[in-house]
Amino acid sequence: MAEPARPPVAELRGISKIYGSGDLEVKALDQLNLTVQEGDYLAVMGASGSGKSTAMNILGCLDRPTSGTYRLNGMAVEQLEDDALADVRNRSLGFVFQQFHLLGHASAMENVMLPMIYAGVPRDERVERAQSALRRVGLAQRLENKPNQLSGGQQQRVAIARAIINRPSLLLADEPTGALDSSTTAEVLELFDELHQQGITLVMVTHEDDVAARAQRIARFQDGRALTGCPQ
Ligand code: ADP
Ligand code: MG
Fold first, then answer.
1. Cα of 221 to ligand 1 centre, how many Å?
2. Partner of 87 at 20 to 30 A CA spacing, among 1, 59, 81, 143?
């Protein structure tokens, strides 16, 4: 018998997100459909305010939709309680932000080990895996440095190492090079390319055409919907 097809890594169907109420109501997402298959590298583009970050936050289980369904590896995440959702976020999703969002008082090692503490990984393994992840992003010489002792590009590498440390099924990056200069941007994009070639499924928001050109496909957002790049 043929193997059953694997479900998509992420599948958004009819996702709407409404902020506020009454006169102040904002429809950030309007019946969004988006499918991400294993091994994809999807770039998300669109004008400011078109709903890109809202969609990323929902994909990353940082926020819940007002309506619609989200299946992550076939599992309906909108039905999960908050604790279970936090667990899914920790184990299955990695998130990289424009402003890095590292813990300022913690070293690169400590920042990268944190998600493994939540996941219950034993200490020896945490140390070994964090060292190897930081090596993988080119920071073997910066293990004990704190964020304010690192350049922007190095901080983003720490954030990327932290995002991949629990081997997520989906890596999400919302304008990850938006705060970086052009040569650092090139290095960080090179790193995302490598991670993708190593099998990581990646969704990245960007404003830059040359950044998006590195992806396999582009979803263009307008008024809370994806116009192109998303075969239904
Ligand atoms: P993008 O990332 O494409 O710039 P966003 O997803 O951040 O767009 O925002 C989509 C729309 O939702 C915008 O009109 C924005 O002002 C609004 N919005 C986003 N977050 C909130 C929030 N927490 N409260 C109210 N409105 C919000
Ligand atoms: Mg945004």
1. 13
2. 143
